[in-house]
């Protein structure tokens, strides 16, 4: 059972004489606030969709970023790197419902604070793709893939996944294909992501198929196709995981069934994807 206690200053003491950048102090605030919200959902709604989580974190990010710009105005630049508060993978998990997604968001939030875990993500991902016993742990693979995204190394994940897919049996190929779709979405390669076979396999009832297609179409500006696939996603969620669906009088009901709120998170995710791409292009110049 995961430990959901709130981290304290004693848990993560600041280095002696450190003077963290204001944006990083704000980042820590968002991490704690986001963690509190996620833990509240984990206690109160152990199996509800968490679309609301992504919206709340996105709003917190925008608010704190505006505050940070004001607080840093006129201040001299410092050498401490400023890390992004939210990531594309966090937005994507905010769109996917279920207890497993909630737990992954909590675990990834902890990984975000672990520099060593992010640095060794490539080697971890490579090892998980070639397990000694021949059995892949897809939960661990998913977490390692997210760490690669958080490190800006999703291209490495795509390369390794394409290689692994060449000889993968059908069940494993489907899961690896879904991971590939996620990484391609983070890279902004929407057309290539949409062509992945796993999104069009009608033999496997997987709600990620219509969900990812809804996301890709929304990112690409095709609202009609996005909404159609989002409805398919909702229907499949109800059919496969009926206990995850909030009752009509639940405060989460409107959020889960509101396509416009879905578009809000996709819009925020697209902004982050575009920013990452622009930074990488600028770095190559």
TrEMBL record:
In terms of InterPro entries, this protein maps to: TPR-like_helical_dom_sf
What is this protein's record name? Answer: Uncharacterized protein
Ranges annotated as spanning the membrane:
45-64
Region Disordered: start and end of each range? Answer: 1-25
Q: Which domain of life is it from?
A: Eukaryota
Q: Which organism is it from?
A: Apostasia shenzhenica
Q: Where is the composition biased (Basic and acidic residues)?
A: 1-13
Keywords annotated in UniProt = Membrane, Transmembrane, Transmembrane helix
């Amino acid at each position: 059972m995961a430990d959901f206690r709130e981290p304290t200053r004693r848990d993560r003491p600041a280095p002696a004489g450190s003077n963290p950048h204001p944006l990083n102090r704000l980042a820590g605030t968002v991490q704690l606030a986001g963690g509190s919200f996620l833990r509240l959902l984990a206690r109160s709604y152990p199996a509800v969709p968490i679309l609301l989580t992504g919206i709340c974190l996105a709003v917190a990010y925008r608010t704190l970023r505006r505050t940070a710009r004001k607080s840093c105005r006129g201040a001299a630049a410092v050498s401490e790197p400023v890390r992004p508060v939210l990531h594309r993978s966090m937005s994507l998990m905010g769109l996917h419902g279920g207890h497993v997604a909630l737990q992954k968001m909590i675990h990834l939030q902890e990984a975000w604070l672990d520099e060593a875990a992010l640095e060794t993500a490539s080697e971890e991902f490579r090892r998980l793709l070639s397990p000694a016993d021949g059995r892949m742990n897809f939960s661990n693979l998913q977490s390692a893939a997210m760490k690669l995204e958080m490190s800006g190394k999703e291209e490495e994940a795509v390369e390794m996944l394409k290689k692994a897919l060449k000889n993968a049996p059908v069940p494993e190929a489907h899961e690896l294909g879904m991971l590939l779709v996620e990484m391609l979405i983070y890279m902004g390669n929407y057309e290539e992501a949409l062509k992945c076979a796993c999104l069009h396999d009608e033999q496997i009832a997987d709600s990620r198929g219509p969900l990812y297609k809804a996301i890709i179409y929304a990112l690409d500006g095709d609202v009609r196709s996005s909404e159609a696939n989002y409805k398919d996603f909702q229907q499949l969620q109800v059919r496969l995981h009926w206990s995850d669906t909030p009752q009509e009088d639940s405060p989460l009901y409107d959020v889960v069934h509101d396509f416009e709120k879905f578009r809000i998170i996709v819009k925020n995710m697209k902004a982050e994807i575009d920013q990452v791409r622009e930074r990488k292009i600028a770095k190559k110049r």
